[in-house]
Design brief:
With 271 residues, the chain is mostly helical. It contains 13 helices and no strands.
């Protein structure tokens, strides 16, 4: 039947595929459809309903629609907190989602508070040092980085990268993300050779992870382009920016912040 939970699960999985293929409006439609169906079947605070709704919030964040994303996830969190004996782990996951949205919007103090709430819950439920605590710790490292506390951020990411790779394996999106963020931080530290190694390693992983170009690959290329530009290598930078832009044009909607950044980088070199 149309509203069977297994059918709804297919909508959710298809939403992820549509995003990677570049049809973000269809991904948004499917996520809303899945969230509404599971809410009808299971209720507003069931883990499947929350999964679809957080997925929608994360899509809006990646799209740059931060006000919509924040409003959606705050409403989600309010509903969870209003429930008697709510699932603390699900609340922690929503705390993390909201923290990422707030950090993307420059609301660093508020983001830090939600990441800390998430970390506290994971420590209480799973124990200090459990692999589930890697993500909120990494997010707190990004907060420190945005505040200019490079040594603190670098130390945390260095401490987390090895266990993340060991737990997830190198051929995993989390591993590629960790390496990408560490590469960007190396750039801010002025450690350009280490930055290039980390970014190229992330690039190799992203190319292994997908059958065809991906936004993760394009982000790696974009950062490598900026690195080469700032080292006075405009030809290499232009090639990398061009590769990133071509991928973004195929996998991102018009006006997406990453697409705009790549377009502006190419145009700046051309002029």
């Amino acid at each position: 039947g149309e509203d069977h939970p297994l059918v709804v699960g297919c909508w959710l999985n298809l939403a992820g595929i549509e995003e990677k293929l570049g049809d973000w409006p269809e991904s948004e439609r499917l996520l809303k459809k899945a969230a509404a169906a599971w809410k009808e079947i299971y209720g507003p605070n069931h883990n499947r309903t929350l999964l679809a709704n957080r997925g929608l919030g994360n899509l809006l964040r990646r799209w740059g629609r931060l006000d919509e994303a924040e409003g959606h996830v705050r409403q989600l969190l309010d509903e969870q907190l209003a429930e008697v004996d709510g699932n603390t782990l699900e609340i922690a996951r929503t705390h993390s989602s909201l923290g990422l949205i707030l950090m993307a919007g420059g609301k660093i103090d508020a983001a830090e508070a939600f990441f800390q709430l998430s970390l506290t819950t994971y420590n209480e439920v799973h124990g200090v040092g459990h692999v589930s605590t890697i993500f909120p710790q990494a997010h707190l490292a990004l907060v420190a980085w945005k505040r200019g506390q490079l040594e603190t951020a670098a130390g945390t990411l260095d401490r987390l990268t090895a266990p993340a790779l060991a737990e997830r394996g190198e051929r995993h999106p989390t591993s590629a993300w960790m390496l990408h963020e560490r590469g960007k931080l190396f750039i801010d530290e002025g450690r350009t050779e280490e930055a290039e190694r980390a970014l190229r390693r992330a690039l190799d992983l992203n190319r292994q992870l997908t059958d065809g170009p991906s936004s993760g690959e394009a982000l790696n290329l974009l950062e490598l382009g900026k690195l080469h530009r700032d080292r006075g290598l405009p030809d290499e930078a232009e090639s990398l920016f061009g590769q990133a832009l071509k991928i973004f044009q195929n996998v991102l909607p018009a006006g997406h912040p990453d697409l705009v950044e790549a377009q502006e980088a190419v145009e700046a070199l051309e002029t």
